[in-house]
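Researcher: Structure for this, please.
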Amino acid sequence: MQDKYVTNCPFCGGTEVIESYQSSYGSVTAVSNKMGGVGLYHSICRNCGSVVRSYVKEPEKLLKKKDRR
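Model: Predicted structure, token format:
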């Protein structure tokens, strides 16, 4: 899957990016909301293996329920 935000690897110039998912022990938890977390996604250069972008798809889930939109 091509990441729409990354076009070239800043380390090797590669143009193929693989999207991966890190869950379980690698989840992200907000400091203010220690209950649960969300999985972390990575865009990885297929050529050199560098992680060129890390993100969560639903950042709202990092907030307490009362603070969500």
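Researcher: Any notable elements?
Model: The chain has no helices and three strands. The chain has one domain: 1-61.
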